């Protein structure tokens, strides 16, 4: 089978003021992809090309399936790799077949929470096959979109071996007793619609007992919506109720008397929920009550700081891969420290995007870089850091870490990630570099 260029290199990251450069150098050990797959064997009926003049072959196929994500959400796209470890068919002729003339295609059967089939194709790539020799192992890839939550089983299905040498010939192989045994299972989580509820306040502060106007959108039409004051993670006694109109908009007012109130929320249901609520929006109660005779009012000021980040270094060297094999070139992103001393209700998001990797007159596409983020929160911080989802970084970017909006936010956090660049085989040897830019907002 003809092969698209894939190369092995080593990666190196350099980071400066939020920008990180990555390079890969040819040579070194080939990293194995993460995750394990189960080999299964099943009876197969293969039909050699008529020109071979031999009867069908009833044998056993050994295969394995692997996925790039075993815990997707509804709406995610899952990539499936179908590897035929031991085909049931063999070269039907006495003629030796040269390298790179086989093109496989196949099917994978879905079961459990989602049914259907996936069509997979493989590259035109193979080792030479002697006359009457057994076909070598080969792999095919395809994708499917998750449509239902729950456990989804994957079973290897029919496959076809097409050879392009002197003649164009096909050897189709079908599963004798479908479906074949399950080789992989993914557990899909439901993906509820995003919460688009939002509120605005008519003023950011007021005296005790003042009324603040509250407007909002994105609520369930006709729903009863509670307006409430918040003090840290607790609700105060200041509440009011409004009804969302037919477009999901709300308009009302809330009398705020509690001196500890530092935010206002609006929510559907009997209690505050981030899934059915909006806010908190910062609100300050100004204690302007007169000081009693013989008393002194003592005040102080807490000054708001800034949102900033720093990096432990500006370079990361990724592991090398072998020319002709390609594969995963891996390493670790330099640790990023985020300090949020702004105060108020806003969280933050740290995202990254990468350029193509250039070198040796060739390039590796930015979409070949993926990461597995991780983050930590310093004890005592009001916010909790959330790591981004594992997956492709690419030119469009992905989230490394974030904290949510809340009544009280801030703190110190560390974020890092395991990096993996999928280097195509037969990419020209050399050093390849790209720039990973991190943005904190």
UniProtKB/TrEMBL annotation:
It comes from the Bacteria. Residues 1-31 form the signal peptide. Residues 380-409 are annotated as: Disordered. InterPro entries: TAT_signal. Residues 380-389 have a biased composition (Polar residues). Keywords: Signal. Coiled coil: none annotated. This is Beta-xylosidase. It comes from Streptomyces achromogenes.
């Amino acid at each position: 089978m003809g092969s698209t260029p894939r190369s092995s290199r080593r990666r190196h990251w350099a980071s400066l003021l939020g920008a990180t450069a990555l390079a890969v150098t040819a040579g070194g050990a080939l990293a194995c992809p993460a995750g394990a797959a189960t080999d299964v064997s099943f009876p197969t009926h293969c039909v050699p090309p008529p020109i071979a003049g031999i009867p069908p072959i009833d044998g056993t196929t050994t295969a394995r399936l692997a996925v790039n994500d075993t815990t997707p959400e509804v709406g995610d796209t899952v990539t499936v790799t179908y590897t035929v470890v031991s085909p049931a068919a063999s070269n039907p002729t006495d003629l030796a077949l040269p390298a790179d003339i086989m093109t496989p295609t196949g099917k994978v059967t879905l079961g459990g929470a989602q049914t259907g089939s996936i069509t997979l194709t493989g590259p035109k790539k193979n080792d030479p096959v002697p006359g009457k020799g057994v076909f070598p192992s080969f792999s095919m890839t395809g994708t499917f979109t998750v449509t239902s939550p729950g456990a989804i089983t994957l079973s290897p299905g029919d496959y076809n071996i097409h050879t392009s040498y002197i003649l164009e010939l096909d050897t189709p192989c079908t599963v004798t007793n479908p479906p074949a045994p399950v080789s992989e299972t993914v557990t899909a989580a439901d993906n509820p619609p995003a919460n688009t509820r939002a509120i605005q306040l008519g003023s950011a502060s007021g005296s005790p007992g003042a009324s603040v106007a509250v407007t909002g959108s994105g609520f369930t039409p006709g729903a009863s919506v509670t307006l409430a004051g918040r003090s840290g993670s607790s609700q105060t006694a200041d509440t009011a109720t409004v009804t969302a109109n037919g477009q999901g908009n709300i308009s009302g007012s809330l009398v705020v008397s509690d001196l500890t109130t530092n935010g206002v929320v609006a929510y559907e249901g009997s209690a505050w929920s981030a899934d059915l609520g909006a806010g908190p929006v910062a609100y300050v109660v100004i204690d302007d009550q007169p000081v009693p005779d013989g008393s002194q009012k003592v005040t102080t000021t807490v000054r708001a700081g800034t949102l900033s980040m720093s990096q432990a270094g500006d370079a990361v060297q990724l592991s090398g891969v072998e020319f002709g094999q390609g594969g995963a070139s891996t390493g670790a992103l330099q640790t990023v420290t985020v300090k949020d001393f702004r105060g108020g209700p806003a969280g933050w998001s740290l995202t990254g995007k990468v350029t193509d990797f250039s070198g040796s007159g060739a390039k590796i596409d930015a979409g070949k870089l993926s990461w597995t983020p991780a983050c930590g929160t310093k004890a005592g911080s009001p916010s909790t850091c959330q790591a981004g989802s594992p997956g492709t970084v690419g030119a469009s970017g992905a989230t490394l870490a974030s904290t949510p909006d809340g009544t009280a936010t801030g703190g110190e956090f560390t974020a890092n990630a395991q990096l993996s660049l999928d280097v195509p085989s037969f990419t020209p040897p050399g050093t390849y570099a790209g720039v990973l830019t991190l943005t904190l907002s």
